[in-house]
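In this supplementary section we document a worked example of the pipeline. Step one takes a protein sequence of length 719 as its only input; no multiple sequence alignment statistics are reported here. Step two produces a three-dimensional model, which step three serialises into structure tokens for compact storage. The input and output of this example are shown verbatim.
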Amino acid sequence: MIKKELRKLRKLYPTKTMMQKAGMDVPVLITRKSGWRREDIYRYKYGIYMRCQILSSILKVAFFLAESMRLGGKAPVYELFINKEAGEFMTWDVRREKWRKAKVDMLDWPEYTWHSGRYINPEGYRSIKKHLGTKNGGYKGILEWQQQVRKEELKERYRRETEPWDMKMDQVPPLPKDWEHWVDKTGFTQNYIFYDYQRKGAKEGYCTWCEKPVPVRDPRHNRYGKCRRCGRKIQYKARGKAGSFYTSGEYVYLLQRCEDGAVVRLFRCWRHYQKPDYENPGRLCSEVRRIFLDDNLRGETYFWGLYKNDHERWIKSGWPWGGSGGRKGAVYKRTLPSLTKKELKRTGLTELVSCAGKVDVENYLYECRRRPEYERLSKAGLGHLVIDNMDDYGSTLDGMGDCRDLAKSLGIDKARMKRLRENKGGRGFLEWLRYEKTLDTIFPDDMVQYFSEQEIGPDELEGMKKRMSEKKIYNYLKRQSTLSGRKAKGLIGTWEDYIHMAKRLGMDVTTELIYRPKDLKKAHDEAAAISGGADVTKRAGEIEEKFPDIERIYEEIREKYQYQEKKYSIIIPKRIEDIILEGKILGHCLHGSDRYFERIHIRESYIVFLRFTEEPGKPYYTLEIEPDGTARQKRTVGDNQNADFEEAKKFIRRWQQEVQKRLTKEDKELAGISRSLRIEEFKELREEKKKVWHGKLAGKFLADVLEADLMEVEAAAAG
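The serialised model returned by step three reads:
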């Protein structure tokens, strides 16, 4: 449509009838509710008036506003022009004097028009319906036709986008004839033996890989084992317990030649086992990705998905291919030899697949472009090392040189590289070979393989190597793992905790009988029971490192402050662990803060225990005392002081009086310093207006609470 020509078409104005209707139409105020919202709006019977005419095969529709017409206005607000044959429409915005391509429902209408009707005379209604061939006439008919035009335009736009994609897909060859069989036997790695439970034990079951009955021995539901016929790893499933279930999704790859190079096809597969017909599982193998490769391994990725929320199809990915991760799968091998001659010649993929089995093909080919060592390693039979490196985000081979000697670039020699290849070694195996080379020694391959499988590196054994050789550690961990049923890697920490606790308990950890207990777990648990646990021991070690004199100080003051009567006793701790356990059991802050241990270290105050004489090992109250016996704090469970302490106060005062007889000149001097520090602390707390933030005393000033808790020696003597 030519815009100049459209403007020359005859003008349309409202008819006399339309003007009369508009003049008589008084707007009505209504209230509309939407949830908790209330909105006042005006509504006309007709907010928009329309007039149409077919002029030179062009349908022209003029739109008039009710408010303007009520004031005598006859100019249209919009003029719509429709060329049905060309499938085109455009609107002249009269007031803004500009062309618009929006549909009628997307034009700028006053708010009242959306709550009001639209008027067109019956003849105009029928004309629009007939001309456009729509279900409705008038405004609805115009919108119906415009929506269909937009839909067709969208289809055409989508077609222009998808047509090149479809041409690419047309290059993809059909699946190999044995594809389904290969997926079933190689792609699926989750196999089962289904058996019928028998009291004396089942003797026969059905293997999903063998697809026939096989002998079984002592099967247990969900236990893993090996098929005695095919040797594959299986999981036992009792028919009466298995129910219906899906296997986990597994990936498989198919690489094929196409017109522009090669295509990598990624499938995801499941099996569905339904009770009772476990011999005939449902199989689903869906293709999810395609990567088209050129001769330089540049890729173009497509995925199967929902296109424009309309239908599923192959869609070109906007993300660069590669770097996928987490898509390891079995690779169909029969197409690889042909591709290796050309498209995959400089990749080493065929060798990698033969060596490593499951491979993330997309990620590997992508990484090959920037890491040429992958090809060298794969072709050298070191595929497991490549796989580990990709799993470790490339850090395994960091520092690998670019020299022609591959063994040297790996930090080992040719003899060790041969061992690496023969043992299908990965990152861990290489790490141990590098380590033994620095020691100029040779470790047994079975030891290196074991440490590699257990993900134990040489650095993790530093503590154990102070007491045992690497081979002895290997034999010890292997034996302890069998004995305890725990992984060897976790037992390293168990041993370190045990040694630490043994040291704290005064045991001679240089003696083999001590540092190599026959039953590590048992020895660890026994030490933990005595010392309070590994966490307690660890905390005690931290405190001892900061304040090394604490236990010596307590040994010096024991006779001075220890005291006992028939009902109560004052107990002096022997070890740091005793203080930590006291805090943990009673639930106060004693064990978590360094503040009290620092005070002990400088002899400002000491932590002692108030116990019932008949239960000396059971925590009752914790006391913080100054060198002269002044009790600063007295706390029990939850950092509280309960009513039962009133009876104990008399005992505390008698103890204070007894302590006075035992004090030295030095003790009295320390007491004076402690008193001064306490007074200064209270002063600072009051100046800072610090309060108690939890417990029964929450909201009170901390200085007032501490002062009220104070039991000075003078007060005891006076009493």
